[in-house]
Amino acid sequence: MDFFASGLPVVTDEAPRTDTAASDDDDEVVLMIKELLDTRIRPTVQEDGGDVIYKGFEDGIVQLKLQGSCTSCPSSIITLKNGIQNMLQFYIPEVEGVEQVIDDDDVEKEANST
Q: Which residues does the UniProt record annotate as the domain NIF system FeS cluster assembly NifU C-terminal (predicted)?
């Protein structure tokens, strides 16, 4: 009952997170990466108005897309390498690095903003 009294919306326009949902194809390493993103990394990035979207894991490299205020932040690469990469490597030795994924839409938005 407390939730209804809080005045918060019962239904929001936000789509449910699917990038870190467990899939039948995920191995143990990918499941650990997704869990760390959900429990430790994403909440911290969201506090600064951004978000991190999991795109894949291949040959030791975690592919992530930065969203929100992180896309235009000059410190985003530092956050990606010093923050996210270090945490993933600390907990998951199979992670060799992290790279930012930039969609065509992001390139177009950047070009239009200049």
A: 33-99
Closest CA to 95 of 66, 56, 41: 56
Amino acid at the residue 26: D
CA angle, 78 then 97 then 45, to 5°: 45
Predicted TM-score (pTM) of the model is 0.74
CA distance 64 to 77: 11
C-alpha–C-alpha distance, residues 29 and 69, integer Å: 28
Tens digit of each residue's pLDDT (9 = 90 or more) over 36-61: 999 999 998 888 888 999 999 999 99
Q: Which domains are present in the chain?
A: 25-113 (3.30.300.130)
